[in-house]
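Much of what follows relies on a compact textual record of a protein's fold. An example makes this concrete, so a full record is given next.
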Amino acid sequence: MPQALPPPEPPPAIIIVTGKALPDPAAERAYAVETIGRDALANAPTHQLDEILKQVPGLQLFRRSDSTSGHPTSQGVTLRALGGNASSRALLILDGVPQADPFGGWVTWPAFDPASLDEVRLIRGGGSVPYGSGALAGVIEMSSLAAKGANGAFEVGSRQSVSGRGYLGAEVGQGLFTINGQAARSSGFIPVTEGTRGPVDRNSPYRQANVRARWITPVASGIELQASGLGFVDVRERGLPFTGNRTRGADASLRLVGSGRWIWAATGYAQWRNFRSSFASVNDDRTSASRVALQDSVPSRGAGGSIEVRPPVGGAIELRLGADARLTTGESRELYSFVAGEPTRRRVAGGETRTEGAFAEATWSRGPLTLTGGARLDHWRISDGELVERLLATGQVTRDDRFQSRSGWRPTARAGALLDVGGGFNLRSAAYLGWRMPTLNELFRPFRAGSDATAANPLLDPERLAGAEAGISYSRGAADLSLTVFANRLSDSIANVTLGRGPGLFPGVGFVAGDYRQRLNVDSVEVRGIEASGEFREGAWSLRLGASFADAEVQASGEAAALDGLRPAQTPKVALTGGLGWNAGRRGASLVVRHVGSQFEDDLNLRKLAPATTVGAFGEWPLTARLQLIARGDNLLNETVVATLGDDGLVERASPRTLWIGLRLPLR
């Protein structure tokens, strides 16, 4: 008899790696969330992520300049008119890792390639319970692209600009390895406007590059490991001799994600930054410049971790339990008091901050109704603060301030509700508390800008936010509409407060020729506003509209009483955006219009920046089966967007018209 064949072996199990974090929590249905997808990130009029994000009304950087021409320390991000200084009041994270500078709280935007991101989610308000300190105005959550294949692009543009980028994703064992990089350089433009510039003013060139590698692999049944490394360099000049700056940085992170019956994620990370910046003074007729200060090194480190668990409680309830901790250390090493081009004094200022917190949040959903509530408790500590100044010639210490350690507890909470009333309509409401630690820069480092000087304040308290919002949304067929009204109160708001006018000697900074300011906790900033957005689709066409109206007012007393009733610096009342898109497979085009209303340059509302409207466009067209021709243009009408207005009448602008053309290999 013939021998029976053995039964066939079962096919190997298919393991799918995602590179994602936990699923979007049910609680966020009750909050104002906006998503920028992969196509919008890759097919934008600009390569700069900060400029792409500005298409969301209500999001702003401290100044209008972008990340190719503005000073890096002016590029903190915030939402809902809660600005007023350069530190971020919204929390920017990449795959679960905070991205603000550990020393100063600003963001080095050239570290991120928009085309390597899968999406960006913006959660306005209510972020502090699951995310902790820094999320008081909301959360900007970036997720990396995790796909097999390769793509790349090379473009040339205005002012001898060159930009290149590439992405590769390949299977390694049972996992996925991805690497992407981006580099750009340009001769730049002259920031000072033609009517106010002088012979000393010149172009502001830049060189920027980033590279990121990521490995995603299963390590056990239902458990995925995500390991990431990021490195970047950003070199710019501010359009004057002795105004170059450079930022270098590196990040490393590990994240484990469990997708079994218990859903969980654990993340650990470390960050290194080093910043260098030179500052110049210009004579009255702008014929010469001289160096007045040099931050020759600002080393800083950030380290932390987080864990979140979603137990299988069953039924209609989603339960989130979590904890996190973050440590930041850094110092500014600065040469100043230059005489005949040489420094005579050295300043070192810095310290350490840390936070640890835990939260719990529950969401109940049944039928058309969703209810959510959560609470959090954080411990914070500021320690090792110092400000030391010495004479270079003799080594004599002229100032030696050592600041006493401080610590405390900060509770936060949030609650929300969503009701599906049928017909595509949803009603939602939410209330929340948030907080933010002062940065090491705000606490310990005095600084100068032109003839003005600002003193640090080691006694700053954390900022506290209380807010509420209500909204209605409609989604049916080809239309998505949303309207939100909100009210926020930012207590103990940290602001640069004008306290005097030079020439003269002032505490903490010495001689000042212009305005003397100090960082102070102001009583509060009250903000009430409306946000609206809409998207309409018809075949290959789409139309997107957005608007933000925010009335912000400072409530101040004591030393800051002169600010009472004024609008916070750098906070416009109105922001409008519109976008028209056409997408027919590998052919596409888009037009983007952005309007920002007037805003004040200074805390005393004496210098007003005019409103500005810019127009941008993008187009793609196939040349071969794989190759595309692409073109971009930003500020096509060459609008003069005033970024800085000096008390001497000097006007600095943001980027003028910028055109790009190039070739692209799409992901395949």
Observations:
- The chain has four helices and 38 strands.
- The first strand starts at residue 32 and ends at 37.
